[in-house]
Amino acid sequence: LILIGLGSVAVSGGLKFGIDFAGGTLIQLQFKNPPDIEVIRDGLKTIGLGESTIQEFGSKKDILIRVQRSEEKLEAVGSMVRKSLMGKFNIDEITVERVEMVGPKVGRDLREKALLSILYAIIGIVIYISWRFELQYAIAAIIALIHDVLVTMGAFSIFDKEFTLVIVAAFLTIIGYSLNDTIVVFDRIRENLRRKGKSSIADMINTSINQTLSRTLLTSGTTLLVVIALFFFGGEIIHDFSFALLVGIFIGTYSSIFIASVFLVYWDSRNTAHR
User: Fold this and answer.
1) Cα 94 to Cα 35: distance, rounded to the nearest angstrom
2) C-alpha distances in angstroms, 161 versus 9, 72, 154?
3) Which pTM does this prediction carry?
4) CA 208 → CA 153, 182, 199, 204, distances in Å?
5) pLDDT tens string 51-67
6) Which fold has domain 106-273?
């Protein structure tokens, strides 16, 4: 899965950054009646704003337009968009609610801060798990979390979705959720290892996974039901956010059981071989 995702990123020339990271202009319009998106798209072609993304925002009367171009005169952009739609709609039916611009430098700064936020989260996780458990548990958890993030990132590349600050928030949510699942499994493993008797560590880890499996599946299943509802009925604005959670929670449940725990078995067998 990771290789497929990374292959997609390589073929497409990198992630598709949204206005938050790449810079650009955001325009919110309000119509008296629900407009036809394709009619708006045709109207915008006449003013040369470049590639644009048009979506409903909240109600069907509110439209959000994102263009990959930064404009210094924000009022002029709003006026240009409004005039470009004059031939398609009655000018009195259109209200420019807001116009926001993110310059390339600001976008670059936001991109760096987003990466740092994920890095700081990972460092905090390593410190916490090393303190609560042992170093090998921290390494196992980080490997599982990196797996979750890379697979979700790959899914965004495959489905050509924009990478924005909202998606960074989704990634941090995925990291927290997956880590919680992993810690539950680790806690049971630690308890069972204290009274393992003649059983091997691999057997005790397998037993621990079986003991926590129903809890893991029920928790993830109920969470996924909510996320699926958000994905289908939450509207266009949170569609990508819920998509990231949908992929991340599913993959996170898998990695807690089949990656983090398996790494502990590998670590033990490696240490045994060097004794």
Assistant:
1) 10
2) 11, 27, 10
3) 0.79
4) 30, 12, 12, 6
5) 677 877 777 888 888 87
6) Multidrug efflux transporter AcrB transmembrane fold (1.20.1640)
